[in-house]
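<derive_structure_tokens>
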Amino acid sequence: MRSRVWRATTAAVLGGLLAAGCGGGDGWDSGAGRDGGEASAPAGKGDSGGHPVTVTDCMGARTTFTDAPKRIVTSNASSLELLLRLGAGDKVTGTGFPPGKGTLPGELDAQAQQVKVLSETVIPKEKLLGSGADLYIDTFASMNMGGGMGDAPTEEEFKAAGIKHTFLKSTACAATSKSPVTDLSAVEEDITSLGAVTGTRAKAKELVDGMKEKVDAVRKAVGGTPEGERPTYFFFDYDAGTKQPLAVCNRQVANAVITLAGARNVFADCDGDHKQVGWEDVIAENPDWIQLGVRNRGSEAGNKKAFDEAQEWLESNPATKGLRAVKEARLLRIGSEQTTIAGVTNADTVEEIAKTLYPGKVGRP
């Protein structure tokens, strides 16, 4: 049996490849704007947590919460992590795609390991509907996984089971968004929305403000660099396979992370979240920098081994060893999840990449 670390990190690819069925809904309509501002309840009608709160799905359909949910099920580790960071972990009663042991920092890891695992991958339809949840937070949007796992429940089935269904829109709606993702506003909206729904607005604001502070500092340091002088950058998703690389396109949150860090994603002209490309395409771009996108193995030693393997592959493969970034050892060892999965650590990755690419401007590499 493969470890939970590997099962959990499969979600990093599934979240991009399988997201479907979303349009360009504008955040949520309880007062939150693109700046990640807080929602507001109608005067005199809200409880102490700021309820009622109304959120929208990718197509703009509205869901109203008259009070905070008490039994939340999450589709994968990304929405679970956000709830833990918000201090709402005690409300989570189950998850799919659980985080592997050691993949979350400190106390978050200990809390995550206490959450009931409803599935190591996508939660089967009948198990989800019978989970007793009053809220299901969906990272992927509607999908049909096949393989005996069953279809995703319909909205009518969610309603009949007494489950409200909301999305991490920064991920679920990314593939069909109308424009490239070049900032973290959608991620910040998700955090703000979850904070309003779960009654943790103050913590949500604290998290969003911290993200903005880091990104704004990088923008101030490198924002004046002309587009043509910014280094080119390729995210090498080593765990997605080496035979045919999986490129991050302009609707993926990684495109925003790379752009905010002052680099140019070599596949930024690709509309969508991910796309299979050929090594000849990467060679044609000949990137200045390559990020070794390795998923968290749950330990420092395990991560180092995986990064070493990814680097060795690039350096020994005839098709890639002549790339500028490989020859000049411009290879960044930064984990996949914090780059490609929407969350608080996206801002940390912006800062980390920028420190390496602009050591004189941003700080020590």
About this structure: Confidence is low (pLDDT under 50) at residues 1-47, 143-149. Residues 4-208 form a domain with the Rossmann fold fold (CATH 3.40.50.1980). The first helix runs from residue 4 to 17.
